[in-house]
Amino acid sequence: MRFTNAVTALVLVATSLAVVVGLAVGLNLVTAVLLGVIVLLGALSVAVARKSDRGAVGPATCAECGGLISPNAPYCKHCGAPRS
Q1: 3-class secondary-structure state, position 65
Q2: How far apart are CA 69 and CA 75, in angstroms?
Q3: pTM over 0.85
Q4: Cα separations in angstroms, 54 against 7, 47, 72
Q5: Could you tell me which of 60, 59, 64 has the C-alpha nearest to residue 81?
Q6: Residue range 56-72: average pLDDT?
C-alpha cells in the first residue's frame, strides 16, 4: 500500500508542476499535448502500482510432496500427483 501511495503522490506532484509550468509559459498546442501525455502516463503509473499491490499469483504447494508447482499445472512436476 505504501508503494501505491508514493506513486500517487509523485504523480500528483509531477502533474501539478507540469500544469504550473504550462500556465507560466502559456498553453500552446505542444504544451497541451505534452501535459496530456504526462497525465496519461501518471494515470498508467497509478494503475500499475495499484495492481502490483494486490499481489501476484505465486506458486502453489503440492499436497503430496510439498514441492512448489505452477498454479496452472495439472499435476506436480516433482511427484506426479494430480493437483487438488
Answers
A1: coil
A2: 8
A3: no
A4: 15, 11, 19
A5: 64
A6: 83
Beta bridge partner(s), residue 60 = 69
End-to-end CA distance of the chain: 32
Place of cell 501476484: 56
User: How far apart, in whole angstroms, are the C-alpha atoms of residue 21 and residue 64?
Assistant: 62
C-alpha–C-alpha distance, residues 54 and 40, integer Å: 22
Rounded CA-CA distance 70/56 in Å is 13
Please, are residues 69 and 83 in contact by the beta-carbon 8 Å criterion?
A: yes
Residue type (1 letter), 47: A
Is the C-alpha dihedral spanning 72, 58, 77, 83 positive or negative? negative
Model confidence over 9-60: pLDDT tens digits? 887 888 788 778 777 877 788 877 888 888 888 888 888 877 766 655 678 8
